[in-house]
Amino acid sequence: xxxxxxxxxxxTVYGAxxxxxxxxxxxxxxxxxxxxxxFFPTDYYIPTSAVASVGDDDVYLTVTKDEALNQAWDxxxxxxxxxxxxxxxxxxxxxxxxxxxxTTGAEQVRVPVYEEEVTPVKRPVxxxxxxxxxxxxxxxxxxxxxxTEERVRVSRVDVDTPGAxxxxxxEEGAIEVPxxxxxxxxxxxxxxxxxxxVEKEPVRRTERVxxxxxxxxxxxxxxxxxxxxxxxxxRPSTP
Length: 239
Description:
Elements: E1 12-14, E2 20-27, E3 31-36, E4 42-47, E5 51-54, E6 58-61, H1 65-69, E7 99-100, E8 107-108
Parallel strand pairs: 1-6
Antiparallel strand pairs: 1-2, 2-3, 3-4, 5-6, 7-8
């Protein structure tokens, strides 16, 4: 006969090696339910015969932590399956994801189904460019300009004036008479004769875009279940 220990929920369970196993979440008649883990906890149904000692808030086992987790104690003992109160407590672990309803005996398994959606996002892109080039073109242009120049006409005039002899009389030499005229030099100046105006304006249009999205479909296959179900409780009965 198992020794009667003062066990209660919330106590911390340790193995014989001092390693923490988990928290007591339920005390049964012949076992204690220990929850191990935080994000994905697992329940272990450790028999009270494996309890070595009990302190104020701690429970020590006769086996080590590894031995406790490898004793197949993660399955509810068959003798206590019909009377187990785990079906009446809230979901506290991944093992409790499938629960039996206390009134109808129905089980619930929630399977998330996902689907992708398409959201259009507009971003500016370059569609091309307008290239404007300027080139220098040369052409011959003639301008008619009037010019003035001097022409020389030499004529001899007979004069008979006695005593009118100058200081240069009877001297040889040459007399130069300058003849003037005009020549043309071309000067070029630049001026603006026009301009090219480039305007851009937004034009709205409708464009159809598409992509491949994924979604999940759930297919349920019937499976053969061995054993019988208690009509009153809706729980599997032990043969």
